[in-house]
Amino acid sequence: MRQAAVEALRLLVDPAVDPLLAQRLLGDPSPEVRKAVVFAASFRPLGALLPALEQALRGDPSDGLRAELVQFLGSRVTTTLEVRPLLAWASQNDSNASIRQAALGFLKAVSANTGP
Q: Residue 74, SS3?
């Protein structure tokens, strides 16, 4: 039920939705609900959600959620410069080697496209 409610929030164009999404991302006990927040965030401007996304990336216990966050942030790496430091942090500090590699892959792809 909470997961469906979070997913539905993606359709609302009200900035008041962002704090609700951040609250679910950082406080919901269900990894599936937290993943639904990442899905909903993909339909919204990132600005207001970036602090919560960063906090989740740095501290969420779910490898699956952090992997989804890296994929999501990586999909925005060329359009939202603010995600690059988050990916850089994950590429060096995440406890899961696959997540570190994924983050590094996005950063290398951007570097290859922008030159030295």
A: helix
